[in-house]
Amino acid sequence: SACIQEDDNLQSMVVGTVMRKIKSRTWKKQRYFKLQDDCMTIWYKSKKAGNAHSTFSVSDVEAIREGHQSEVLLSIADEFPANRCFTLVFRGRRANLDLVADSADEAQSWIRGLKKLIENLENMGEREKLDQWIGDWFKKADKNNDGRMNFKEVQDLLKMMNVDMNEHHAHRLFTKADESQSGSLKDDEFVLFYKMLTQRDDVMRVFQEYSSDAQKLSQSDLEVFLREEQLEGDDVEPLAKQLIERYEPSDTAKLLKAMTFDGFLMYLGSAEGSIFNPQRRGIFQDMSQPLCHYFISSSHNTYLMEDQLRGQSSVEGYIRALNRGCRCVEVDCWDGANGEPIVYHGHTFTSKILFKDVVNAVGNYAFKVSEYPVILSIENHCNVEQQRVMAQHLKRILGDKLLKSTLDGRAAVGLPSPEDLKGKILVKAKKIGNLEESFNGVMEDSLSGEVSDEEDAADIEEDNLHRESRSKQRLSKELSDCVVYCKSVHFSSFKHSRIHSKFYEVASFTESKARKHLREAGAEFVHHNSRQLTRVYPTGFRTDSSNFNPQEMWNAGCQIVALNFQTAGEGMDLNDGLFSQNGRCGYVLKPSFMREPEKRFNPETPQRRDGYQPVVLTVQVISGQQLPKVNIKEDSIVDPLVRVEIHGVPLDQAKQETRYIENNGFNPVWYDMLRFTIHSPELAMVRIVVEDYDKTSKNDFVGQYTLPLSCMQQGYRHIHLLSKDGTSIPPASLFVHIRISELE
């Protein structure tokens, strides 16, 4: 294959290498690894003859970590040096693969080779990705490996691809594609067959409506389409030129400054043709406002990988959350053996990890995807001695990254901004006395103060099991001094806060407490959150680590809405959707009416605010493309329906569905119109879900995509669907038409 010729690393990967696969201190087995000729598949098996082999695709690898960067490899660090070790992290829920090569050179060869392959994949155009995808299917279906597919093999393949096609129609296309008239298809003939199969009549209709000669779009045809249909503004000439340059495959058409149907289809399938506005992908917001003016991506029980009673605690939980752009992680600290504090879910059977290992992981991964500050929310159940050890670890491991004093060394008057705090890690915990006093240097060695803010096993009134968590406990001055802008405090009332509270004080609420406050005093809550930070976390009843809907809390301006990142579903879809804008940096600026205290916005009565302007959103769901199979049952094919959900202020919460289409996950067509009135568009999130209709039981989930209404592009757009855990499932998509207009 061409990709290998120039590259020594890839050449040695094709030859293959024996490496140790490590699962624990005791499970270390040799496996033979090699790269297949397709430059996409890694194949491996044990050395024993006759044993089955395993494979994975390079496209499933999310990251490569060098050295002892996983729990498993840390546990054998004394046995194998870091320069021979590396970890492959997969998308979705697949477990890491921890490997030890025989030499540092061999490890480097695989690390560099894999990085190169991943980079090639990322640079691939949509067209090549599709060809690659078709090629992968071809290999799966070519049962007898003769490089050809007879009609029977093609029929089986269509089933695998979620296509229910009548035999007559399939046979007609098969004969047409079989240009060599051999009764079977070679790979390029199969690509032709596939393209006839995926003829996009829905897109052709649009193309012909705007083409003046039904053959091509001239540059001026394209400009009319961009201006009137896509609402790209008035000055669309440069955009039209750029799109022809970028997406038109035919050089002849390019010379004529025109776009063929193929180019038009490529454009509509690209980032510019997607529903998400590319101008909001990178950082576009003002990052110099006080911290309390931003929603902050936040995780709850970050150390847990599954449920809260028996689950694995793991440093991996921190790495995964930080790599998803999370900016506030939770560390639950308890006294451990040998004077070393440990992290786990207290009073349960979850496993335990060392506090210092958590701090190490945070130090290493805090700023890989975002340079904006990370907040360590510390739940402290330790004695004074172990608190001192915690403070030492924080200072020693984090060094200059740890924020140890106010920014200019003077008494502060307000919260600094994400911009001011770039590259800094802030500790949120109890503090002795207040920030002002720490400037006069008059502090006793250690005073008593309540140690824990969270009666996490449950709210006090919900559960009296853990009375001891209310008892007073001494705080160490060293740990207290690590707290600067985020002092954990108990909340008594909005009135009390308005008069007495300081800007650096942070109150925590369980979701049920927060709900009670926002229903009884929404405007007060919004006002409180324009001055200081608030953290909301799931109630102790959610022992399955399920999530609440974060939207309700964002409506009240709560910044630190802590979710179980390890649990897929609606809550995390909304979180991923909100934070997919602004460079995925984990900070999103709140709407101005939530930042200005005099605005008195109340999420319960959005129509009362100044500048109230409701909008109407119409979504025409036109068609679906290559929806993934849900049921593994051989002969089942999806009956897809699309549901559009609006999440926002209570008045805006709404859901509507299309009809379901029987037996077609490959190219279902709806042309169904859904219409919504939205009263607080600045806060609205749109979640688009595809389900497999089932008349007897709950519908199965097929895919979803969530984004802020403010990031939506109008006109004809593709929505590239995501799987349950938020990873992409190419080439599954929906084709829609979007309009957002002011309500007259």
From TrEMBL:
UniProt-recorded name of the protein: Phosphoinositide phospholipase C
GO MF entries: calcium ion binding; phosphatidylinositol-4,5-bisphosphate phospholipase C activity
Localization (cell): Cytoplasm; Endoplasmic reticulum; Membrane; Nucleus
Cofactor: Ca(2+)
GO cellular component: endoplasmic reticulum; nucleus; plasma membrane
GO biological process: intracellular signal transduction; lipid catabolic process
Record EC number: 3.1.4.11
InterPro entries: C2_dom, C2_domain_sf, EF-hand-dom_pair, EF_Hand_1_Ca_BS, EF_hand_dom, PH-like_dom_sf, PH_domain, PI-PLC_fam
